[in-house]
Design the sequence.
């Protein structure tokens, strides 16, 4: 079936398509959608949200009722991992269902070309492509961070609608510039709106939800927040509220808490819009983070070791919640070990959309629907390439098999081996005592690195931009 005809087929087939295309797959028998139709899908991703930075995940100096509500109303996964310790690689895996280095993004895609460590492969198929071809309206609101090139503009990578930030980080939540350049876009039009980025993204998402309430086709909305990525700039009233409530809190932590609480409030506004429009009843909502919290900026990763940029648990293990009324029972909890890339096959399974190419992710819908611990027979790998003046050529790695985890967190240092069941804080290196599993994991990681090394990660011919960049 051609792409165009498949899309038209999915638009008109309705509930029968939802049942028929999932037949024979792992989760098909587990899903009984009371709405009898394909769900809308809302994916909300925070930027640098630590594992311990929600009150539902143990934070005692923070109030996050909206996100906590998602945790309570649906499924929670306590062993959910980001594909990387930093932004772009996780987002590449999130949208393709493949390890990030397999689609050309082993490191951070940055606006300065001399410090750019990825180029999203042109043959990579994004979940936005698949869902749009199947009749979904697809939208990205917020941070893109997967390339400035026209061929990698969100409108050319499966998103019908884009309203957000094309570049990497913002230098200011209010002024929306990076190195003095405005990357804010409404589709391809440069815009210069007033307001805090978190509130702007929410306003646009709320407007989108109200528009889609009048449409017949389902939607896939990826709301990609900046918060709580540095610079840590909460609105002043939110910062004062935290200081008044937590009189002993230090300035750095107070600002981070305030920025997260502000984001939580805005997510609550979006959830209210889903309820008001009646769309909440048939919307699968997933919330997570792109990597662990940044410790120098006041984040908390709970009892986990390390933070953003580390391959230890604090850098890659992130909060996760999924809500789908009538399908996912409130209070469901699963110990399945999963990665960001697993969301692509999960979304496609929920939507009844077949995946017709090879991916690395696996469907975790049974974990969300039943709370079962899926015994997924696979090794997991983390690869990050980095550069810049301090880290030229740096590559750090990790691998996991069952409870065993292999880590090279510092370039040039030896690998460490931990047993996460016995040592979740990764305090005791067991590489000498368990040479067998150490050798097996290093061999498996080597093969994975060689596989990823075959994929180009710079644009052929380079990027055409001004040469006068700051480092």
Sequence:
């Amino acid at each position: 079936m051609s792409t165009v005809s498949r899309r038209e087929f999915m638009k008109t087939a309705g509930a029968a398509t939802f049942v028929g295309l999932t037949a024979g797959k792992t989760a098909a028998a587990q899903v009984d959608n009371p709405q009898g139709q394909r769900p809308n899908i809302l994916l909300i991703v925070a930027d640098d949200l630590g594992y311990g930075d929600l009150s539902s995940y143990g934070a005692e100096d923070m109030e996050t009722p909206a996100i906590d509500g998602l945790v309570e109303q649906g499924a929670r996964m306590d062993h959910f991992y980001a594909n990387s310790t930093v932004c772009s690689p996780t987002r590449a895996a999130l949208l393709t269902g493949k390890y990030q280095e397999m689609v050309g993004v082993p490191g951070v895609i940055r606006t300065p070309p001399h410090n750019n460590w990825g180029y999203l492969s042109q043959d990579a198929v994004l979940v936005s492509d698949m869902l749009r071809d199947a009749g979904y309206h697809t939208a990205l609101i917020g941070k893109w961070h997967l390339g400035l090139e026209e061929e990698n503009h969100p409108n050319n990578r499966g998103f019908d609608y884009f309203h957000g930030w094309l570049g990497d980080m913002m230098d200011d939540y209010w002024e929306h510039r990076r190195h003095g350049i405005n990357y804010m876009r409404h589709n391809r039009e440069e815009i210069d709106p007033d307001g805090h980025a978190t509130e702007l993204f929410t306003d646009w998402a709320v407007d989108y939800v109200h528009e889609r309430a009048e449409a017949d086709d389902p939607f896939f909305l990826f709301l990609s927040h900046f918060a709580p990525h540095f610079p840590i700039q909460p609105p002043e009233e939110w910062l004062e509220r935290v200081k008044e409530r937590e009189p002993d809190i230090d300035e750095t932590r107070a600002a981070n808490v305030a920025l997260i609480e502000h984001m939580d409030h805005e997510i609550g506004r979006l959830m209210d819009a889903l309820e008001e429009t009646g769309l909440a009843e048939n919307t699968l909502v997933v919330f997570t983070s792109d990597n662990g919290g940044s410790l120098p900026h006041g984040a908390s990763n709970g009892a986990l070791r390390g933070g953003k940029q580390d391959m230890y648990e604090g850098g890659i293990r992130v909060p996760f919640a999924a809500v789908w009324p009538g399908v996912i029972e409130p209070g469901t909890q699963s110990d399945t070990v999963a990665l960001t890339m697993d969301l692509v096959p999960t979304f496609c399974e929920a939507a009844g959309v077949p995946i017709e190419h090879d991916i690395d992710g696996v469907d975790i819908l049974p974990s969300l629907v039943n709370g079962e611990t899926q015994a997924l027979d696979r090794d997991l790998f983390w690869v990050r390439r980095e550069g810049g003046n301090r880290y030229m050529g740096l590559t750090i790695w990790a691998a996991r098999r069952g409870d065993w985890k292999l880590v090279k967190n510092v370039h040039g240092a030896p690998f460490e081996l931990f047993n996460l069941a016995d040592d979740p804080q990764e305090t005791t290196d067991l590489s000498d005592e368990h040479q067998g599993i150490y050798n097996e994991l290093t061999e498996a990681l080597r093969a994975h690195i060689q596989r990823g090394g075959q994929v180009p990660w710079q644009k052929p011919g380079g990027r055409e931009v001004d040469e006068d960049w700051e480092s």
